[in-house]
Each structure stands twice: as C-alpha cells, then as structure tokens.
Amino acid sequence: MTSSKPGGFRQVPPPAGGKERPANAYARFIPREELADFAAWTPGAFGEGADPFGTSTKAQPRAAQRPEPAPAPAAPPEPTAEQWQARIEEARAQGYGQGYRDGLEALDAAKRQYAQQTSAQVAQVLAAFDQQTQALDVRLADTLVHSAVLLARQVVRSEVAQRPELIVQVAQDAIGAVILSARHLRLRLHPQDLALVEAGAADLLAARSVLLQADATLSPGGCIVESDLGQVDARIEQRWAQAVAVFGRDEPLVDGSSEVDL
Prior knowledge:
By secondary structure, this protein is of the alpha+beta class. The chain has a domain at 156-245: ATP synthase, E subunit, C-terminal (hypothetical protein PF0899 fold), CATH 3.30.2320.30. The protein contains six helices and four strands. It has helices spanning 62-65, 81-162, 166-176, 191-200, 202-208, 236-245, and strands at residues 186-189, 211-214, 223-227, 230-234. A four-stranded mixed sheet has the order 2-1-3-4. β3 and β4 form a beta hairpin.
C-alpha cells in the first residue's frame, strides 16, 4: 500500500531471514480520509510563514505569530503665540527671581568680606596705636626720670656748696657704720671739710679714736672711713650713684658739662 501522491511513503518488506517484529497498535498508515487537513512536505515549506512540520496554518494564524507594531503617538500640537508669550514671561520671572537671590547672596558675601577686612584693618590700627602709646609712655617716663635726676643733681651740688656743715653728719654716719670692734680708724676727707668735722664731731672722734686725714682727691661733702676690718665709702659721688640706681639711671654727679645751678 502506498501513499495517494507520488513521492509518498511506501511499505518496505523486512530483510530476508529477519524476524518480523510484532505489529504495534499505533504502527500503521493513516488513511487520507481520516485526516482533517493534509499537505505534503516539501523543501519550500521552510519559507517565511511556513510550518516546518506541515501542520495547517489554520491552527496558528500568521497574525498571532508576529504582532503588528503599535502606531506612533501623535505629535503634540504647536503652542500658540499666547502660550509662547506666557512661557517667555514665566522664564523671565524665574530668571529675575534667581538673579535677585544670587545678587542678595553676593551682596551678603561682599558685606561679610568687607566687615572682615575692616575689622582686620581696625585691629592693626589699634595694635599700632597701642604700641605707639606704650613707646610714648616709656619715653615720657624716661624723660621724667631724667629731669628728676638732673634736678636732684643740681640740688645736691647746691646744698654741698651752700651748706658745707652737712659734712659733719656725713662723717658721723660713716663712722657709725663701722663696727665697734674695729681698730685703727682713719677718716679721709677734703681739706676744706677738715675743720668742720673737727669742730662738729669732736666727741665721736675722741670716743672711737679716729684719726683725721686731709685728702684733696676727694670732693667736698664726702669722706672715706678706713679701719683694720675694711672701709666705708661715703663719697658724695658714691652716694649719688646709689640714689640714681633706684631709678635705673647712671648719670654721674659731675659730667663735665656746663650746667646752670637752679
């Protein structure tokens, strides 16, 4: 039994000497009358849209295999002149607002920077003014001390010249500074002060057995007491140096300059 079409399947007898297999209930040819749709398979069946298994195209429509593309959305309508104008006004308002805010921020930043610069400059001016004030105070204090020292020097020189009897008190203080156990006391003083001391401190000189000695190298108004334990320098230049040292000065009593006595 062969197919109803040329080129169809035909029954092939089993090989010679072979054992024929038992027939399967499903191993049989299906008559054409039992097929609802039937088409012979050909190589062209692999074309576009063809079913390679020879099944009917009615069971699976072509439209279901490849859906049609969705239509493109319609383009929006062009804005009208009024809409364009409204958009322009809105953009202008937004730009103005943004520019106004940016301007305020820039102004605040400029104010802060100016305030910082001004504060720094004022601080520098105040610091410089304070330094100048301190320097001026130092100069004024130095000038005042210098003036006071000059005045005191004039007073000392004037007192020594006008009151030569003050040498008596100076000699007594110098002798009193020597301890009682000291021996061989000798009082050296200017020749013009010798008589004043002999008359004004005779009792003290006798009690301490002090020997008077004129010394022209000493200035009037001063003296030196010598003993076996040391000496006491009561020269007027020495006492003057100790007095001005309290003020941090070292002006000598006599500097060689011509000064007008007060």
